[in-house]
Amino acid sequence: MSLLLSAPILAAIVYTAIAGAYLLVIPLLVLFYFKARWYKTGSLERVFLCFLAFFFFPGLLLLSPFFNFRPEARQI
Questions:
Q1: Taking all residues of the chain, what is their mean pLDDT, rounded to a whole number?
Q2: CA distances from 10 to 18, 39, 58, 60, 64 (A)
Q3: Which one of 14, 23, 38, 41 counts the least CB within 10 Å of its CB?
């Protein structure tokens, strides 16, 4: 077996990929899903959105300071 892909290094790569997906990639997709669907959801989809917010809370907490999804100002 190659030294480059030994078990500890491969395990570290896999753990890093899983942590990156859990903390950065999936919460980013969830944030944009929230933005697209927040005012159009039904009750079951709202429950699903709350589940996603609960499940990916650490990643959402890391990314939320960098995004501003407030509604646009109205024209009067």
A1: 88
A2: 12, 43, 25, 27, 31
A3: 14
d(CA 57, CA 69): 17
Q: Give this prediction's pTM.
A: 0.77
Separation CA 11–CA 30 (nearest Å): 27
What is the spatial distance between Cα 35 and Cα 41, in angstroms, rounded to a whole number?
11
Q: Taking a C-beta distance cutoff of 8 angstroms, is the pair 27, 63 a contact?
A: yes
HSE value, Cβ hemisphere, 13 Å, CA-based, for 21: 6
Residues 32 and 64 sit within 8 Å (Cβ to Cβ): no
Three-state SS for 30? helix
pLDDT at 57: 95
What pLDDT score does 33 carry? 93
Tokens of 33: 């899903």
